[in-house]
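Much of what follows relies on a compact textual record of a protein's fold. Think of the row as the fold of the chain written in a discrete alphabet. An example makes this concrete, so a full record is given next.


***
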Amino acid sequence: MNSPLRVLVLWFPDWPLRAALGAPPHPPTALIQANTVVACTASAREHGVRTGQRRRIAQGHLASLRVLPHDADRDERAFLPVLNLIEQHAPGVTLLRPGLAVLRARGIARYHGGEAEAAEALADILATAGFPEVRIGVADGPFTAEIAARGLAPCTVVPPGGAREFLSPYPVQVLRDEQITGLLVRLGVRTLGEFAALTPLDVRDRFGEHGARLHALAGGADSRPLTPRPPDPELARSIEFESPLGGTDQVAFAVRQTADAVMLALGDASLVCTEVRIDLTDDDGGVFSRSWLHPTCFDASDLVDRVRWQLEALAAESAKEPVDEARAFGGIVAVRILPAAVDDAAHHQPGLFGSGTDERLHHAVSRVQTMLGHQGVVTAAVSGGRWLADRQVLTPWGERTVPPRDPASPWPGSLPDPLPAEVFLPPRPIGVLGADEDAISIDERGTLSQPPAQIDGAAVQAWAGPWPVHERRWTTGGGKRGHRLQIVDDRDRAWLVFHTGERWWAEGRYR
């Protein structure tokens, strides 16, 4: 893991309430989302109201509690002027969430003569601007700095290398993972120091990669990269056509100068673009938007390629729709290219001896994608789901991967780790026979007609199950249902099979 950056975190307590009600003090008030308290005033906390409570419980503590709906967009709009104010005195600020911002400490600390002096200077500036409640923490990495900012002191500086000692007495709940922290508490691990004292290999084996990440945070090893804040909208460039253009190559050729103009604007600001949003407007006034990511940074030809790919994808989607429901895809009358995330150009300068491995890899993959088409090169991600096929998401290279189902959500009936190394798409039919070579069946109670003795022509050495899986049982027909088994044959192959109807299917195979 890389050495953590020294960062400075600014925390504005109860920001959603500040955005909704203005400067404190406030009467007892709670903001509600999905019938749950997401923020409450200090006057409400004095009566027992807490974040995370159900609305009726909060009102039970205080009958006169004022309840307002929470608006996340309002929080962001209200925090933008604060970010601009910080940016004027400390360039490079990054928004973590409304009310919480982070920036690298090195530059501003050198300017003010030290980290504590820089934090005090920023606190004075914000207090003069009407934000005296700000709390500032300086530490190794955003996680430790945020914990420091949430202390009682206006400014808290954790010395370099002191993150582990500083975090040690804090409860594990500050990691904000109810599932893992709940299990840790039941195991008797109640503080970050006790969690950090566990062997990393044991933590990884028990909790997986996510648990290992939390274990690193508990020990003060926070190397999370800072995500640049959205750039100035003035960097965007657009072009309008006198007559609609219907051909992909026509539009791509027409936007070349626009792409060059975007790169010139970024160059004048000493920035590079790492994420771009492209808006296509057709002759009926419809706007088709899509965001594109880049592993390093875009150049003009990359932007033109993304416009072409977006048009091809749009045409393909229109062709898939039924004729009686399809919306006629007209010609394009305008294209807008908006840099959605930028970074300092100095971070992307080529090294003394040429470009790095990642950049060469990206250029090679991009060339292959240009030859094979937008869908020719894909990256894989894990999605939520009970069936293995549902958990695989393939996204074209360069696009943001957004799983259609949250993998962190509970999925009762899903397969626990370790997962099969090979997944059959679609599942392939397979024979699971008993000792008398008759097909095995499973009744509604999940009872096998006889133990499995053969699978795919091999003898069964061991087996486990069955486990029922029943999805969408409320739909017409009862949804997809079946029973899973894990079977090991005498050829040292481990199978994941399921039985549905009267047939057996191989869902995956372990290696």
